[in-house]
Amino acid sequence: MRITVTVDGTRYTDEVEPRTLLVHYLRNQLGKVGTVVGCDTSNCGACTVHLNGQSVKSCSVLAVQADSGEITTIEGIARDGELHPVQKAFEEHHALQCGFCTPGMIMQSLDLLSENPDPDEQAVREGLEGNLCRCTGYQNIVRAVQDAAEHMRPGAGPEIEQAGETTGTAAAQGMGGGVQ
Prior knowledge:
The chain has 180 residues and is of the alpha+beta class. The protein is built from 5 helices and 5 strands, in the order E-E-H-E-E-E-H-H-H-H.
């Protein structure tokens, strides 16, 4: 089947098998390897991307379901060679260890912050509960999300990625884990 999608601001038209998962299309056909294949069962959240402004686990979406859609991956959130505030906060707060879950965690954090720009600790934990991290106790992840929220408030720096808006250029791997 032929699909046309916009990924990180670039439009692509490709032939895909009807059963191709979005995560495999992004990685294998487009080279967006920051989107990680984790469990292939939608349990871990490592493959989280934004589809039409909403976070989705790309291992549970067929590429054909994304036809005509706008997709933002971890590679698309940095601007002008600068990390997104959420990426910076994860780095500054050491909110990663092995880094495998990082892309999905950051993408889910963006979705959380678009819905709740000033989350308390419990709201962060609940907002990220579908993403799992095997390395951390989540304290640094929660701190990073709250710090990013503070830096993203109006007047504090670059605005948060808005629903449906694609963001950019530089590739930077992020975080995706679960918060319990």
